[in-house]
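wait is this the right file?? whatever heres the structure
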């Protein structure tokens, strides 16, 4: 686990050699900024979606992160209430398997 810095990003540009990988900002390719004003990524767990193996264009930046509480859907991530995340965090490790059914 590590804190997100203001220059942390995630490349979501298919065809870019850094696709679906963390990058440092500024970054010339299309990317998502991880340090956000809305604080949704204050707790952000990278899910092993399209990482091993990685397929260009299949999807990127799929995270388990916080929701703002306004019930808006994510663009493919899993987002939960910060209070629920605080309950879950002590129970997970890098060996935890998240199953979505």
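ok assuming it is, sequence goes like this
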């Amino acid at each position: 686990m590590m804190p997100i810095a203001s220059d942390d990003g995630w490349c979501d540009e298919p065809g870019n050699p850094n696709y679906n990988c963390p990058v440092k900002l500024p970054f010339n390719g299309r990317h998502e900024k991880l340090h956000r004003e809305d604080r949704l990524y204050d707790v952000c767990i990278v899910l092993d979606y399209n990482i091993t193996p990685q397929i260009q264009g299949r999807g990127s930046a799929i995270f388990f992160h916080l929701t703002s509480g306004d019930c808006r859907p994510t663009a493919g991530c899993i987002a939960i209430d910060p209070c629920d995340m605080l309950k879950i965090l002590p129970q997970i490790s890098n060996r935890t398997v998240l199953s979505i059914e």
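The radius of gyration is 14 Å. so i think its the right one actually
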